[in-house]
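To close the section, here is one more complete example, presented without commentary so you can practise reading it yourself. The ligand is zinc ion.
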Amino acid sequence: MMSRTMAEAQLPHRVDGPKLVENNQQFSAQIDSSVLSRLNDAVDRCLAPVSCVLSFDRDEERHRVLKGSCSTRVSMVCQRCLEPVEVRVESQFSLGLVFNDEQAKQLPRRLEPVEVDENGILDLWSVIEDEVLLALPMFPTHEASECQMRQPEPENKPGNEKRPNPFDVLAQLKQK
Ligand SMILES: [Zn+2]
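Output:
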């Protein structure tokens, strides 16, 4: 196992939200993406940890705010050629920490509400996972040039009927 530098520290899982706000806590850390089961279900494969830069603070209106960004790389299925495509996922967010729906309703629109439990505990991994899921492309595809270079599988898999491929036609035209 490779040694981890400070910059690669694991982001804490469950944290005391209000306490981190009072401490103006900041994190530059990552989450091992293998622990994020919903993300693993949503993509073909995770290719990197989720890197996070987070800051807990009060804003000018005294709202408890978790501000930050996260990024990772995943492999998804290209919706044009059905081959894997590497997707870089990035998200920036401003979240308002609340204890209940009533507080959530009082947040200004610039803050997305995130609920802590009655003890102020926040599942930080789940919050970040939500942000990554929201940032996934609905229709992942290769760049047009890369996608056209893909050749169809030569072998005929059972159940896979051979259909004319528009890129084959294009390739034949180019050869002439
Ligand atoms: Zn493609």
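Once you have examined the tokens, check your reading against these statements. The mean pLDDT is 88. The helical segments are 17-22, 37-42, 101-105, 124-135, 144-149, 166-175.
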